[in-house]
Amino acid sequence: MSAKDCGNHDHKRRKLYRRLFSAFLAFVIIVLLVILIIWLVLRPTKPRFVLQDASVYQFNLSGLNLLSTTVQISLVSRNPNDRIGVYYDRLVVYASYRNQQVTLGTVLPSTYQGHNEVIVWSPFLNGASVPVSPYLGLAIGQDQNVGYYILNIKVDGRVRWKVGTWISGHYHLNVNCPAYLRLDGHGGGGNGVMVKLQVPVGCSVDV
């Protein structure tokens, strides 16, 4: 084979590679444009959660640093999307005090939330004789003397998005709602009923 033939062969090969690369680049650009158009049309927004109400009927610490807690909450979720539905496949809600979980996880029923739909859950959260660290016991005593507590209502779960007939895979959902509580008749050893302050609390949501 002559050197001229080899040169032509290499030139054709480079030309083929350039065409393949151009075709691949065009495909990537088209895919990105489609994704951008879909995003602009759908404007996906994560669900919004609000802690509407919280009543603590028990928040008692024994001498062995064992905490017993009973809380009822009203948690509101709104889907702000006009074209996207949300599947809540598994939601577990619990109460946390100073970054320590103080109730067992309560499983909320799986449900579907349509466009701009609002869902309200009103579960009880319970923790019987939950061991807590000594510093937490001191903090509880200080808060009881003041008459105010801050509990964090947390939700851990999985969601899926629905657009038309298409349903996405699972995404992890984390919700954190700070509940500012006032102890009625405080000074009685923590046996009074605490009620949430009148203003509903917005929650932080991570998906």
TrEMBL record:
**Domain Late embryogenesis abundant protein LEA-2 subgroup: residue ranges:** 77-177
* UniProt KW keywords: Membrane, Transmembrane, Transmembrane helix
Provide the membrane topology annotation: Single-pass membrane protein
Report which superkingdom the organism of origin falls in.
Eukaryota
Write out the GO cellular component annotations. Answer: plasma membrane; plasmodesma
Its transmembrane ranges are 20-42
Q: Name one GO biological process term.
A: defense response to other organism
Q: What is this protein called?
A: Late embryogenesis abundant protein LEA-2 subgroup domain-containing protein
